[in-house]
Structures are given as structure tokens and as C-alpha cells.
What does this fold into?
Amino acid sequence: MAESNGIDPEALKHLMDIGGAAFTVKMIDLFLETGGQRLAEAWDHGKKGDWAGVRKAVHSMRSSAGNFGAQRLFTLAGEIEKMALAGNTAPIPDLLRELETVLDRVQNQLRQERVRLTS
It folds into this structure.
């Protein structure tokens, strides 16, 4: 089965089971606020050749993606982490572009879920 580019409804249900709608909305808001920041940090660190900084930025995003079952985002961030750690940095810009596309899709889905949960 192909890896999903979006969020997993079961992961959202799990968050709802843990803390209800208010908790889930808070988690969504946090991800919406920090996802773009982490991506920008990864780009900035990459331009400077600071691969440890790239790893740190995408690691944070990876952890958050896991909370929402955003498997492709989770996997991409993990690939970038491994490449940065190994010094295999040439593919990272292309992976960051893909990460940006997937992040945008995930954030749009989360915005829709947020509206649904707060209506």
C-alpha cells in the first residue's frame, strides 16, 4: 500500500480519546504554528551547511507528524535526519521541497479538522 500524504483519521480519533476536542484542537494549533517554522529552520540551517541544525528542525517536525499519523511527513523527516547525520547532504534540498509539499497538504487537512471540531 502506498504511504499516505495526509493525516490518519485513526490518529485524530486517538487524540480525541486522550483529551477530547479541546486537546485535539490545541495539538492542531501547535502543529500549525510550528510546522512552517521548523521547515524554515531546516532550510536556513541547510543553506549554512549546519546539518545538525537541519536534523534538529526535522526531528521536531517528525515527532509532531507522528501524532497525526502523517506517515509520509514522518518518513521524509526521518530520511532527512538520517542523510544529514551520515553527511549525505546532496539529496536534502529535493527532500525538503517534497517535505514542504506534504506539510502543506497535512496542514490544510488539519485546518479543516480544526474547523470541524470547533463548529
Observations:
- The chain has four helices and no strands.
- The first helix runs from residue 9 to 47.
